[in-house]
Design a protein that fits this description.
The protein is an alpha+beta fold. It has a single domain, classed as Aminohydrolase, N-terminal nucleophile (Ntn) domain (Glutamine Phosphoribosylpyrophosphate, subunit 1, domain 1, 4-Layer Sandwich), CATH 3.60.20.10. About 20% of the residues lie in helices and about 25% in strands. Strands 1-2-6-7 form a four-stranded antiparallel sheet, with no helix packed on it. The protein starts with a helix and ends in a 9-residue tail after the last strand. Pfam families: DUF3700.
Length: about 120
């Protein structure tokens, strides 16, 4: 199982699994961010802020059952939430649903799960 593959305990929940998988791959070497989600199945949407690297990693599954929104605040910062009202209040007109089946890494930009080497605009 994936939990064994990443050396995690049997009581690891889904949220901790994503965080620990990210950490494990980050610490093993320069693995691309898409390696964290290549084996995930089902509904998911998450944001990981890596304080050590100063990077952000966002992903949303294709089925959009977990929907994320993102936008640019007045001060230029990126705002991400699963609450559209929070984004709307923070970003005025500069917000949109996060694209389904995509991931964003602050070092690699926006990418599709299916074609992670092709950046999206």
């Amino acid at each position: 199982t994936l939990i064994k593959q990443y050396g995690l305990g049997k009581t690891t929940n889904e949220a901790m699994f994503v965080i620990e998988a990210y950490r494990t791959l980050r610490d093993r070497g320069p693995y691309p961010a898409d390696q964290v989600i290549k084996d995930l199945e089902g509904s998911f949407g998450f944001v990981i802020y890596d304080k050590n690297a100063g990077t952000v990693f966002i992903a949303q599954g294709e089925d959009q059952r977990v929907q994320l929104f993102w936008g640019i605040a007045a001060d230029g910062s990126v705002v991400i939430s699963d609450n559209k009202d929070v984004i709307k209040a923070s970003c005025a007109k500069s917000f949109a649903p996060f694209p389904p089946g995509c991931m964003f890494h602050s070092e690699g930009g926006l990418m599709s799960f299916e074609h992670p080497k092709n950046k999206l605009k």
